[in-house]
Amino acid sequence: MSARLATAALLVALAALHLALAWPGAGERGVIAEEVTPYLPRHPVVLAGADGGGVRLLPPHDRPDHRGFVSTAQWPNLAYVGEHRTWPVLIKGHQSALGTYVGIAAAPVLGDGIAGVRRSSVLLGLVLVGLVFALARRLGLGLGLAAAAAVACILSPGLLFFARTGYGFELASRVAMLAALLLATRPLTARRSAALGLVLAAAILCRATIAATLLPALLLLLVHPAHRATPRRLALALGLGAAIPLLFVLAVQAAIPLHAGTAPAAKLPLADLAARTAAAPATLAAQLAYVADPGTVLLPLVADLSRSALPGLVFGTAILLLALARWSRARAGDGECLFVAAALGNALFGAWLYGDPQQFQLGMALEPLFVLAVAHQLQSLAARPRLLAALVAGLLAMRAWQCGVLLAAERATTNPMLSGKAQRELTAALAERRPGPGDIVTTTYNHVGMLEAWAPQSSDPPLHAYRALRRGRGEDGAEAIAAWQAILRHQSARFIVLSTGPNLFDGPFTDNTATGRALVSALPAVGRRIVARSDFTCESGTPCLALLELSPRP
Known about the structure:
The structure is a single chain. By secondary structure, the chain is of the alpha/beta class. The protein is built from 22 helices and 11 strands. It has a 7-stranded mixed β-sheet with strand order 2-1-8-7-9-11-10, with helices on both faces. The protein is globular, with a radius of gyration of 25 Å.
């Protein structure tokens, strides 16, 4: 078999494996607020606040005419409200809607509603896997090890989880990152320099924090002796990559005032950067544990399961230290060098951006480079083919086990945010009751977009009250009680949605139990009472969501 035919056969097999794992069940998993809100035809209706002065809505629902550009605190932070749908511009200050448009364009062809959006993400994941294979080959890995690296990505719980969601901006940034690195593995002609600059700009526009991973690795490739770029072509590539996102942001900010706190870098604490630098080693440790075993982060989220981070940390640290040792002796493969540079950049920028080592977002972009580093280290054993084959088989078996554990955990999820069963049953129960305008009130951030995704035909969207009810509004709950009283006086609020299961993503600003207590305390003052309660369980059979029906307003 010719090398070209073997490569084509391997790519077909890789695509089949990825699609077999990621495609099924795209329309069944629970909806995550941040994945679905950029794709909603209209902005969700969110309370800006509720108190004695009444209830106030976030833009664009704070004015009669919703059309035109709107900046708001709810994702998407900047959008254009057209006649037939909302077109996102900035999902968040540092995340444009560039990757989101893949789902908006492809979803109608791939399936209805959230299923089509997620299938577009599956296809983005497929492109990512293909780029890992191509980059592995370009960096000198043999056909077998390049295929093994791609399989390791396919079986990664991290990629598998996000390739079945609507996080288009996240996946697109990683696709563009790998495409940029692939372009940089060849000497830069004028045309290739311009292409590299455009792809680099696309990656940063999709998610600016990708630069923490991409730039250290890219610069390392651009100064590589085999394809060192001339200063003019280097300036063209890097200049385009930096100028396009910067000019885009400046143009947006000059034309449309962004909502308070949503501008790019609005929450970056410049005064604390020096102090946060001390968190870089812990950030590196957390990312090494994640890339070696994403289940350490995902299993607690999916099914409230704990897994020790120590084995992943030990393995990830061993790969990094071995890469450093081999680099110092001029024996490291290019994949190892890229991983070292990106890991150190991630650790520093992760500490600066978040100050919390448990924020694993940057580690997601690091994972393909980790896989390439492992593959290059395995290639050094080419003279001992039996040992090499055994190690490859063992590592892929471990990845397959990690993948299987995640899939099993999803089938028994305890998380309301990920429970398609509970969310669909709740939506169906509400549809049977035929709610009218202002009848439905949700209570936590992760309810946003949930009902809209499962019942997009509804003309009366729910009212999301999480901002008015968030934790910290009075030690005794008085402010939450006052907020409830304002909501109940000014809205019909017949149906209240509560989360009764655990969710790490609710964050420290949410206390679902306290929200329920505040509602009960607020009811007598407004002459209302609970007349019915329906509970919906997760796939695990544990409590997940609750629907309270209140008596009509007096």
